Prior knowledge:
By secondary structure, the protein is mostly helical. The chain has helices at 2-9, 16-27, 31-34, 44-48, 51-81, 89-117, 120-136, 138-144, 156-186, 192-228, 235-251, 260-263, 270-283, 285-314, 324-344, 350-369, 375-403, 409-438, 440-462, 464-474, and strands spanning 150-151, 154-155. The protein has a two-stranded antiparallel sheet. The longest helix is centred in the middle third of the chain and has 37 residues, at 192-228.
Amino acid sequence: MQLFEEREHQNTPDDRLSTIAGKSDRLHPDPETKGDRPPRGSGLLPVLKNTRFLILWLGQIFSQLADKVYIVLMVALLSTHFHVGEDHIGTWVSAISISLTIPAILFGSLAGVYVDRWFKKDILVASNLLRGAFVFAIPPLLWLSNDWGSLWGVPWGFCLLLIVTLFVSTFTQFFAPAEQVTIPLIVQRDRLLPANSIYATTIMALLILGFAVGEPLLALSDRLVSHIFPSWSFGQEILVGGAYTIAGIILLFLKTGETRDTSDREHPHPFQDIGEGLLYLKENHRVRNAIIQITSLFCIFAALTILAVPLAAEIPSINAQQFGFLVAAGGVGLGLGAAILGQWGQHFRRMKLSFWGFMVLAIALVGLSFSDRYLISALLAMAACGGCAATIYVPMQTTVQAETPEEMRGKVFGLQNNAVNIALSLPLALAGVAQSLWGLRPVLWGLAVFAIATGFLNWYISRPSVLTSSQVKKS
Protein backbone atom coordinates (compact mmCIF):
# COMPACT_ATOMS: atom_id res chain seq x y z
CA MET A 1 0.00 0.00 0.00
CA GLN A 2 2.81 2.42 0.84
CA LEU A 3 4.46 1.56 -2.44
CA PHE A 4 1.34 2.58 -4.35
CA GLU A 5 1.24 5.89 -2.43
CA GLU A 6 4.93 6.57 -3.04
CA ARG A 7 4.46 6.02 -6.78
CA GLU A 8 1.74 8.68 -6.90
CA HIS A 9 3.86 11.22 -5.01
CA GLN A 10 6.80 10.62 -7.33
CA ASN A 11 4.71 11.77 -10.33
CA THR A 12 6.21 9.05 -12.48
CA PRO A 13 4.43 8.09 -15.71
CA ASP A 14 1.77 5.53 -14.93
CA ASP A 15 -1.30 4.30 -16.73
CA ARG A 16 -4.69 4.95 -15.19
CA LEU A 17 -5.28 1.25 -14.55
CA SER A 18 -2.47 1.11 -12.02
CA THR A 19 -3.84 4.24 -10.35
CA ILE A 20 -7.30 2.73 -10.15
CA ALA A 21 -5.89 -0.46 -8.65
CA GLY A 22 -3.88 1.53 -6.11
CA LYS A 23 -6.84 3.70 -5.12
CA SER A 24 -9.03 0.63 -4.77
CA ASP A 25 -6.56 -0.97 -2.39
CA ARG A 26 -6.32 2.19 -0.25
CA LEU A 27 -10.01 3.00 -0.14
CA HIS A 28 -11.11 -0.60 0.45
CA PRO A 29 -8.47 -2.45 2.49
CA ASP A 30 -8.59 -6.17 1.92
CA PRO A 31 -10.22 -8.01 4.83
CA GLU A 32 -8.09 -11.01 3.95
CA THR A 33 -4.99 -9.16 5.08
CA LYS A 34 -6.58 -6.88 7.69
CA GLY A 35 -8.57 -9.62 9.41
CA ASP A 36 -11.71 -7.48 9.66
CA ARG A 37 -14.38 -8.74 12.00
CA PRO A 38 -17.91 -9.25 10.67
CA PRO A 39 -20.10 -6.15 11.03
CA ARG A 40 -22.59 -5.78 13.84
CA GLY A 41 -25.89 -7.31 12.78
CA SER A 42 -24.26 -9.40 10.07
CA GLY A 43 -26.03 -12.26 8.34
CA LEU A 44 -28.91 -12.57 5.92
CA LEU A 45 -31.53 -10.52 7.78
CA PRO A 46 -29.92 -7.05 7.40
CA VAL A 47 -29.56 -7.65 3.65
CA LEU A 48 -33.19 -8.72 3.33
CA LYS A 49 -34.23 -5.52 5.13
CA ASN A 50 -32.58 -3.51 2.34
CA THR A 51 -35.51 -2.42 0.15
CA ARG A 52 -33.31 -1.78 -2.89
CA PHE A 53 -31.81 -5.24 -2.67
CA LEU A 54 -35.29 -6.76 -2.32
CA ILE A 55 -36.39 -5.06 -5.54
CA LEU A 56 -33.30 -6.33 -7.39
CA TRP A 57 -33.84 -9.80 -5.90
CA LEU A 58 -37.48 -9.94 -7.03
CA GLY A 59 -36.43 -8.86 -10.50
CA GLN A 60 -33.79 -11.61 -10.49
CA ILE A 61 -36.37 -14.23 -9.49
CA PHE A 62 -38.78 -13.46 -12.34
CA SER A 63 -36.00 -12.92 -14.90
CA GLN A 64 -34.09 -16.10 -14.14
CA LEU A 65 -37.24 -18.18 -13.82
CA ALA A 66 -38.11 -17.02 -17.35
CA ASP A 67 -34.58 -17.97 -18.49
CA LYS A 68 -34.95 -21.53 -17.22
CA VAL A 69 -38.53 -22.07 -18.42
CA TYR A 70 -37.56 -20.62 -21.84
CA ILE A 71 -35.60 -23.79 -22.61
CA VAL A 72 -38.59 -25.94 -21.59
CA LEU A 73 -40.78 -23.73 -23.81
CA MET A 74 -38.54 -24.38 -26.81
CA VAL A 75 -38.79 -28.15 -26.26
CA ALA A 76 -42.59 -27.86 -26.02
CA LEU A 77 -42.76 -25.83 -29.25
CA LEU A 78 -40.62 -28.40 -31.07
CA SER A 79 -43.05 -31.13 -30.06
CA THR A 80 -46.30 -29.25 -30.77
CA HIS A 81 -45.47 -27.11 -33.82
CA PHE A 82 -42.90 -29.25 -35.62
CA HIS A 83 -43.86 -32.73 -34.34
CA VAL A 84 -40.23 -33.70 -33.75
CA GLY A 85 -39.92 -37.34 -32.63
CA GLU A 86 -37.87 -38.51 -29.66
CA ASP A 87 -35.19 -39.87 -32.00
CA HIS A 88 -34.40 -36.42 -33.43
CA ILE A 89 -35.42 -33.97 -30.71
CA GLY A 90 -31.91 -34.05 -29.21
CA THR A 91 -30.45 -32.58 -32.41
CA TRP A 92 -33.07 -29.82 -32.53
CA VAL A 93 -32.57 -28.97 -28.85
CA SER A 94 -28.79 -28.86 -29.44
CA ALA A 95 -29.36 -26.23 -32.13
CA ILE A 96 -31.36 -24.16 -29.62
CA SER A 97 -28.57 -24.59 -27.04
CA ILE A 98 -25.97 -23.41 -29.55
CA SER A 99 -28.10 -20.33 -30.28
CA LEU A 100 -28.10 -19.59 -26.56
CA THR A 101 -24.34 -20.10 -26.27
CA ILE A 102 -23.06 -18.11 -29.28
CA PRO A 103 -24.00 -14.65 -27.91
CA ALA A 104 -22.58 -15.60 -24.52
CA ILE A 105 -19.16 -16.24 -26.08
CA LEU A 106 -19.23 -13.40 -28.63
CA PHE A 107 -20.75 -10.59 -26.58
CA GLY A 108 -19.97 -11.39 -22.94
CA SER A 109 -16.96 -9.06 -22.71
CA LEU A 110 -18.43 -6.39 -25.01
CA ALA A 111 -21.60 -6.21 -22.92
CA GLY A 112 -19.51 -5.52 -19.83
CA VAL A 113 -17.90 -2.53 -21.55
CA TYR A 114 -21.28 -0.93 -22.22
CA VAL A 115 -22.53 -1.75 -18.71
CA ASP A 116 -19.75 0.48 -17.35
CA ARG A 117 -20.87 3.39 -19.58
CA TRP A 118 -24.66 3.09 -19.41
CA PHE A 119 -27.14 3.67 -16.62
CA LYS A 120 -27.44 0.31 -14.81
CA LYS A 121 -31.16 0.58 -14.14
CA ASP A 122 -31.84 1.24 -17.84
CA ILE A 123 -29.96 -1.93 -18.78
CA LEU A 124 -31.79 -4.06 -16.20
CA VAL A 125 -35.22 -2.79 -17.25
CA ALA A 126 -34.65 -2.73 -21.02
CA SER A 127 -33.00 -6.17 -21.22
CA ASN A 128 -36.01 -7.79 -19.54
CA LEU A 129 -38.68 -5.88 -21.48
CA LEU A 130 -36.94 -6.64 -24.79
CA ARG A 131 -36.64 -10.34 -23.98
CA GLY A 132 -40.31 -10.36 -23.09
CA ALA A 133 -41.18 -8.66 -26.38
CA PHE A 134 -39.27 -11.27 -28.41
CA VAL A 135 -41.02 -14.13 -26.59
CA PHE A 136 -44.39 -12.48 -27.22
CA ALA A 137 -43.42 -12.29 -30.92
CA ILE A 138 -43.05 -16.09 -31.22
CA PRO A 139 -46.76 -16.92 -31.89
CA PRO A 140 -47.22 -14.42 -34.77
CA LEU A 141 -43.85 -15.43 -36.25
CA LEU A 142 -44.80 -19.13 -36.23
CA TRP A 143 -48.19 -18.29 -37.74
CA LEU A 144 -46.62 -16.19 -40.52
CA SER A 145 -44.05 -18.88 -41.37
CA ASN A 146 -46.59 -21.71 -41.72
CA ASP A 147 -46.65 -21.42 -45.52
CA TRP A 148 -43.01 -20.46 -46.03
CA GLY A 149 -41.74 -24.01 -46.50
CA SER A 150 -38.22 -24.85 -45.44
CA LEU A 151 -34.64 -23.68 -45.81
CA TRP A 152 -32.27 -26.54 -46.70
CA GLY A 153 -34.77 -28.96 -45.22
CA VAL A 154 -35.24 -26.96 -42.00
CA PRO A 155 -38.68 -25.35 -41.44
CA TRP A 156 -38.64 -21.56 -41.56
CA GLY A 157 -40.52 -21.49 -38.26
CA PHE A 158 -37.64 -23.27 -36.55
CA CYS A 159 -35.15 -20.86 -38.13
CA LEU A 160 -37.15 -17.97 -36.65
CA LEU A 161 -37.05 -19.67 -33.24
CA LEU A 162 -33.26 -19.80 -33.51
CA ILE A 163 -33.14 -16.08 -34.37
CA VAL A 164 -35.41 -15.19 -31.44
CA THR A 165 -33.20 -17.30 -29.16
CA LEU A 166 -30.10 -15.45 -30.40
CA PHE A 167 -31.67 -12.11 -29.49
CA VAL A 168 -32.95 -13.31 -26.11
CA SER A 169 -29.49 -14.66 -25.24
CA THR A 170 -27.82 -11.43 -26.42
CA PHE A 171 -29.94 -9.29 -24.10
CA THR A 172 -29.18 -11.74 -21.28
CA GLN A 173 -25.47 -10.93 -21.73
CA PHE A 174 -26.26 -7.33 -20.80
CA PHE A 175 -28.56 -8.20 -17.90
CA ALA A 176 -26.10 -10.55 -16.14
CA PRO A 177 -23.14 -8.14 -15.64
CA ALA A 178 -25.51 -5.21 -14.94
CA GLU A 179 -27.11 -7.23 -12.14
CA GLN A 180 -23.73 -8.19 -10.68
CA VAL A 181 -22.46 -4.60 -10.88
CA THR A 182 -25.61 -3.27 -9.21
CA ILE A 183 -25.24 -5.42 -6.07
CA PRO A 184 -22.23 -3.48 -4.67
CA LEU A 185 -24.01 -0.20 -5.57
CA ILE A 186 -26.98 -0.95 -3.31
CA VAL A 187 -25.43 -3.21 -0.63
CA GLN A 188 -22.83 -2.12 1.91
CA ARG A 189 -19.38 -3.56 1.31
CA ASP A 190 -19.38 -5.48 4.61
CA ARG A 191 -22.67 -7.20 3.64
CA LEU A 192 -21.69 -8.31 0.15
CA LEU A 193 -21.02 -11.90 1.22
CA PRO A 194 -24.57 -12.58 2.53
CA ALA A 195 -25.98 -10.72 -0.48
CA ASN A 196 -24.04 -13.00 -2.82
CA SER A 197 -25.18 -16.00 -0.79
CA ILE A 198 -28.80 -15.05 -1.48
CA TYR A 199 -27.91 -14.44 -5.14
CA ALA A 200 -26.27 -17.88 -5.51
CA THR A 201 -29.04 -19.66 -3.62
CA THR A 202 -31.64 -18.06 -5.87
CA ILE A 203 -29.79 -19.12 -9.02
CA MET A 204 -29.67 -22.76 -7.93
CA ALA A 205 -33.23 -22.80 -6.58
CA LEU A 206 -34.57 -21.41 -9.86
CA LEU A 207 -32.39 -23.81 -11.86
CA ILE A 208 -33.99 -26.76 -10.07
CA LEU A 209 -37.46 -25.20 -9.96
CA GLY A 210 -37.40 -24.08 -13.60
CA PHE A 211 -36.57 -27.51 -14.98
CA ALA A 212 -38.68 -29.39 -12.44
CA VAL A 213 -41.92 -27.41 -12.72
CA GLY A 214 -41.38 -25.75 -16.09
CA GLU A 215 -43.54 -28.21 -18.03
CA PRO A 216 -46.45 -28.20 -15.50
CA LEU A 217 -46.33 -24.39 -15.35
CA LEU A 218 -46.47 -24.12 -19.15
CA ALA A 219 -49.34 -26.61 -19.33
CA LEU A 220 -51.28 -24.79 -16.60
CA SER A 221 -50.75 -21.45 -18.33
CA ASP A 222 -51.95 -22.90 -21.63
CA ARG A 223 -55.13 -24.24 -19.99
CA LEU A 224 -55.89 -20.99 -18.17
CA VAL A 225 -55.44 -18.82 -21.26
CA SER A 226 -57.45 -21.18 -23.49
CA HIS A 227 -60.21 -21.25 -20.84
CA ILE A 228 -60.46 -17.44 -20.80
CA PHE A 229 -59.82 -16.98 -24.54
CA PRO A 230 -60.79 -20.25 -26.30
CA SER A 231 -59.24 -19.17 -29.62
CA TRP A 232 -55.82 -18.45 -28.09
CA SER A 233 -53.22 -21.23 -28.15
CA PHE A 234 -50.17 -19.38 -26.90
CA GLY A 235 -50.53 -19.42 -23.12
CA GLN A 236 -46.99 -20.81 -22.77
CA GLU A 237 -45.46 -17.82 -24.51
CA ILE A 238 -47.55 -15.50 -22.33
CA LEU A 239 -46.11 -17.15 -19.20
CA VAL A 240 -42.44 -16.77 -20.21
CA GLY A 241 -42.79 -13.37 -21.86
CA GLY A 242 -44.89 -12.19 -18.92
CA ALA A 243 -42.21 -13.24 -16.43
CA TYR A 244 -39.60 -11.16 -18.30
CA THR A 245 -42.02 -8.23 -18.45
CA ILE A 246 -42.84 -8.43 -14.73
CA ALA A 247 -39.10 -8.42 -13.97
CA GLY A 248 -38.67 -5.27 -16.07
CA ILE A 249 -41.59 -3.54 -14.34
CA ILE A 250 -40.30 -4.44 -10.86
CA LEU A 251 -36.84 -3.09 -11.71
CA LEU A 252 -38.38 0.24 -12.75
CA PHE A 253 -38.69 0.94 -9.02
CA LEU A 254 -35.00 0.21 -8.31
CA LYS A 255 -32.81 3.08 -7.11
CA THR A 256 -29.14 2.39 -7.78
CA GLY A 257 -27.80 5.69 -6.46
CA GLU A 258 -26.48 6.63 -9.88
CA THR A 259 -27.16 9.98 -11.50
CA ARG A 260 -27.32 10.80 -15.17
CA ASP A 261 -24.15 12.86 -14.81
CA THR A 262 -22.16 9.84 -13.63
CA SER A 263 -23.56 7.51 -16.26
CA ASP A 264 -23.24 9.85 -19.28
CA ARG A 265 -19.54 9.33 -19.76
CA GLU A 266 -17.43 9.20 -22.88
CA HIS A 267 -18.51 6.86 -25.64
CA PRO A 268 -17.28 3.27 -25.25
CA HIS A 269 -14.18 2.14 -27.09
CA PRO A 270 -14.93 -1.60 -26.91
CA PHE A 271 -11.57 -3.18 -27.66
CA GLN A 272 -9.65 -0.53 -25.75
CA ASP A 273 -11.94 -0.97 -22.75
CA ILE A 274 -11.60 -4.77 -22.88
CA GLY A 275 -7.84 -4.27 -22.92
CA GLU A 276 -8.12 -2.04 -19.85
CA GLY A 277 -10.13 -4.76 -18.12
CA LEU A 278 -7.45 -7.34 -18.90
CA LEU A 279 -4.74 -4.96 -17.70
CA TYR A 280 -6.64 -4.36 -14.48
CA LEU A 281 -6.83 -8.10 -13.86
CA LYS A 282 -3.10 -8.30 -14.45
CA GLU A 283 -2.56 -5.54 -11.88
CA ASN A 284 -4.92 -6.90 -9.19
CA HIS A 285 -3.92 -10.39 -8.09
CA ARG A 286 -6.90 -10.88 -5.75
CA VAL A 287 -9.55 -10.25 -8.40
CA ARG A 288 -7.63 -12.28 -10.99
CA ASN A 289 -7.30 -15.18 -8.57
CA ALA A 290 -11.01 -15.05 -7.70
CA ILE A 291 -12.03 -15.18 -11.38
CA ILE A 292 -9.64 -18.10 -12.00
CA GLN A 293 -11.26 -20.02 -9.14
CA ILE A 294 -14.82 -19.24 -10.28
CA THR A 295 -13.96 -20.31 -13.84
CA SER A 296 -12.34 -23.54 -12.61
CA LEU A 297 -15.36 -24.29 -10.46
CA PHE A 298 -17.73 -23.91 -13.42
CA CYS A 299 -15.47 -26.22 -15.47
CA ILE A 300 -15.80 -28.92 -12.83
CA PHE A 301 -19.56 -28.57 -12.47
CA ALA A 302 -20.23 -28.45 -16.20
CA ALA A 303 -18.37 -31.76 -16.51
CA LEU A 304 -20.17 -33.13 -13.46
CA THR A 305 -23.57 -32.33 -15.02
CA ILE A 306 -22.69 -34.39 -18.09
CA LEU A 307 -21.21 -37.23 -16.00
CA ALA A 308 -24.42 -37.41 -13.95
CA VAL A 309 -26.08 -39.20 -16.90
CA PRO A 310 -23.74 -42.26 -17.05
CA LEU A 311 -23.56 -42.26 -13.24
CA ALA A 312 -27.36 -42.51 -13.05
CA ALA A 313 -27.26 -45.32 -15.62
CA GLU A 314 -24.90 -47.34 -13.39
CA ILE A 315 -26.99 -46.93 -10.22
CA PRO A 316 -29.42 -49.90 -10.07
CA SER A 317 -32.36 -48.03 -8.49
CA ILE A 318 -32.63 -45.30 -11.18
CA ASN A 319 -32.01 -44.96 -14.92
CA ALA A 320 -30.12 -42.52 -17.12
CA GLN A 321 -33.22 -40.38 -17.73
CA GLN A 322 -33.46 -39.72 -13.98
CA PHE A 323 -30.04 -38.06 -13.74
CA GLY A 324 -31.91 -34.91 -12.69
CA PHE A 325 -32.14 -36.34 -9.16
CA LEU A 326 -28.34 -36.19 -8.92
CA VAL A 327 -28.16 -32.67 -10.37
CA ALA A 328 -30.92 -31.54 -8.01
CA ALA A 329 -28.98 -32.95 -5.03
CA GLY A 330 -26.00 -30.82 -6.04
CA GLY A 331 -28.27 -27.80 -6.30
CA VAL A 332 -29.75 -28.45 -2.85
CA GLY A 333 -26.24 -28.72 -1.40
CA LEU A 334 -25.20 -25.47 -3.02
CA GLY A 335 -28.31 -23.69 -1.79
CA LEU A 336 -27.85 -24.93 1.79
CA GLY A 337 -24.13 -24.11 1.71
CA ALA A 338 -24.79 -20.60 0.40
CA ALA A 339 -27.46 -19.98 3.06
CA ILE A 340 -25.14 -21.13 5.86
CA LEU A 341 -22.30 -19.10 4.42
CA GLY A 342 -24.47 -16.01 4.20
CA GLN A 343 -25.32 -16.29 7.89
CA TRP A 344 -21.90 -17.12 9.34
CA GLY A 345 -19.37 -16.90 6.50
CA GLN A 346 -18.06 -13.46 7.46
CA HIS A 347 -16.33 -15.01 10.47
CA PHE A 348 -13.85 -16.67 8.07
CA ARG A 349 -11.38 -15.38 5.53
CA ARG A 350 -12.59 -15.66 1.96
CA MET A 351 -9.41 -17.19 0.53
CA LYS A 352 -9.35 -19.90 3.20
CA LEU A 353 -12.99 -20.73 2.53
CA SER A 354 -12.19 -21.17 -1.15
CA PHE A 355 -9.04 -23.24 -0.52
CA TRP A 356 -10.78 -25.70 1.79
CA GLY A 357 -13.78 -25.72 -0.51
CA PHE A 358 -11.63 -27.12 -3.31
CA MET A 359 -9.94 -29.62 -0.99
CA VAL A 360 -13.24 -31.02 0.30
CA LEU A 361 -14.67 -30.92 -3.23
CA ALA A 362 -11.86 -33.24 -4.34
CA ILE A 363 -12.75 -35.67 -1.53
CA ALA A 364 -16.44 -35.51 -2.49
CA LEU A 365 -15.58 -36.25 -6.14
CA VAL A 366 -13.56 -39.30 -5.13
CA GLY A 367 -16.45 -40.41 -2.93
CA LEU A 368 -18.83 -39.94 -5.85
CA SER A 369 -16.66 -42.19 -8.01
CA PHE A 370 -17.31 -45.06 -5.56
CA SER A 371 -21.07 -44.36 -5.38
CA ASP A 372 -22.00 -46.00 -8.66
CA ARG A 373 -24.01 -48.72 -6.91
CA TYR A 374 -25.81 -46.83 -4.16
CA LEU A 375 -28.26 -44.00 -4.76
CA ILE A 376 -28.13 -42.56 -1.24
CA SER A 377 -24.35 -42.26 -1.21
CA ALA A 378 -24.40 -40.70 -4.72
CA LEU A 379 -26.99 -38.13 -3.60
CA LEU A 380 -24.97 -37.29 -0.48
CA ALA A 381 -21.75 -36.97 -2.49
CA MET A 382 -23.45 -34.67 -5.03
CA ALA A 383 -24.91 -32.57 -2.19
CA ALA A 384 -21.41 -32.32 -0.69
CA CYS A 385 -20.07 -31.16 -4.06
CA GLY A 386 -22.76 -28.48 -4.15
CA GLY A 387 -21.96 -27.32 -0.63
CA CYS A 388 -18.28 -27.03 -1.53
CA ALA A 389 -19.20 -25.04 -4.62
CA ALA A 390 -20.95 -22.50 -2.38
CA THR A 391 -17.84 -22.06 -0.21
CA ILE A 392 -15.88 -21.29 -3.37
CA TYR A 393 -18.29 -19.26 -5.51
CA VAL A 394 -19.81 -16.95 -2.87
CA PRO A 395 -16.53 -15.71 -1.30
CA MET A 396 -14.84 -15.33 -4.67
CA GLN A 397 -17.76 -13.46 -6.24
CA THR A 398 -17.74 -11.20 -3.17
CA THR A 399 -14.02 -10.59 -3.66
CA VAL A 400 -14.54 -9.52 -7.28
CA GLN A 401 -17.29 -7.09 -6.29
CA ALA A 402 -15.51 -5.68 -3.24
CA GLU A 403 -12.06 -5.28 -4.79
CA THR A 404 -13.05 -3.89 -8.19
CA PRO A 405 -13.62 -0.12 -8.38
CA GLU A 406 -16.99 0.98 -9.70
CA GLU A 407 -15.67 2.30 -13.01
CA MET A 408 -14.11 -1.10 -13.83
CA ARG A 409 -16.83 -3.48 -12.68
CA GLY A 410 -18.67 -3.83 -15.98
CA LYS A 411 -15.47 -4.67 -17.87
CA VAL A 412 -14.35 -7.15 -15.20
CA PHE A 413 -17.74 -8.87 -14.92
CA GLY A 414 -18.00 -9.00 -18.71
CA LEU A 415 -14.63 -10.75 -18.90
CA GLN A 416 -15.65 -13.06 -16.04
CA ASN A 417 -18.90 -14.00 -17.79
CA ASN A 418 -16.99 -14.65 -21.01
CA ALA A 419 -14.51 -16.90 -19.20
CA VAL A 420 -17.34 -18.77 -17.43
CA ASN A 421 -19.25 -19.29 -20.68
CA ILE A 422 -16.17 -20.77 -22.34
CA ALA A 423 -15.52 -22.84 -19.20
CA LEU A 424 -19.03 -24.22 -19.45
CA SER A 425 -18.76 -25.03 -23.16
CA LEU A 426 -15.51 -27.01 -23.21
CA PRO A 427 -16.40 -29.60 -20.50
CA LEU A 428 -19.85 -30.07 -22.05
CA ALA A 429 -18.08 -31.14 -25.24
CA LEU A 430 -15.23 -33.14 -23.68
CA ALA A 431 -16.63 -34.82 -20.55
CA GLY A 432 -18.80 -37.33 -22.39
CA VAL A 433 -15.96 -38.25 -24.77
CA ALA A 434 -13.51 -38.71 -21.88
CA GLN A 435 -15.99 -40.89 -20.01
CA SER A 436 -16.51 -43.13 -23.05
CA LEU A 437 -12.74 -43.49 -23.54
CA TRP A 438 -11.52 -43.99 -19.96
CA GLY A 439 -14.62 -44.71 -17.89
CA LEU A 440 -16.52 -42.75 -15.26
CA ARG A 441 -14.28 -43.34 -12.26
CA PRO A 442 -10.96 -42.14 -13.81
CA VAL A 443 -12.64 -38.98 -15.12
CA LEU A 444 -14.03 -38.16 -11.66
CA TRP A 445 -10.57 -38.74 -10.21
CA GLY A 446 -9.18 -36.37 -12.84
CA LEU A 447 -11.67 -33.71 -11.75
CA ALA A 448 -10.59 -34.27 -8.14
CA VAL A 449 -6.92 -33.70 -9.09
CA PHE A 450 -7.94 -30.54 -10.98
CA ALA A 451 -9.80 -29.29 -7.87
CA ILE A 452 -6.73 -29.87 -5.68
CA ALA A 453 -4.48 -28.10 -8.19
CA THR A 454 -6.82 -25.10 -8.30
CA GLY A 455 -6.95 -24.94 -4.51
CA PHE A 456 -3.17 -24.90 -4.22
CA LEU A 457 -2.94 -22.30 -7.01
CA ASN A 458 -5.27 -20.16 -4.89
CA TRP A 459 -3.02 -20.70 -1.86
CA TYR A 460 0.12 -19.85 -3.87
CA ILE A 461 -1.30 -16.66 -5.39
CA SER A 462 -2.69 -15.52 -2.02
CA ARG A 463 0.61 -15.85 -0.15
CA PRO A 464 1.86 -12.54 1.28
CA SER A 465 5.29 -13.20 -0.27
CA VAL A 466 3.79 -13.25 -3.77
CA LEU A 467 2.11 -9.87 -3.19
CA THR A 468 5.29 -8.37 -1.75
CA SER A 469 7.48 -9.53 -4.62
CA SER A 470 5.04 -8.29 -7.26
CA GLN A 471 4.86 -4.88 -5.61
CA VAL A 472 8.66 -4.63 -5.40
CA LYS A 473 8.90 -5.34 -9.15
CA LYS A 474 6.39 -2.56 -9.90
CA SER A 475 8.20 -0.05 -7.72
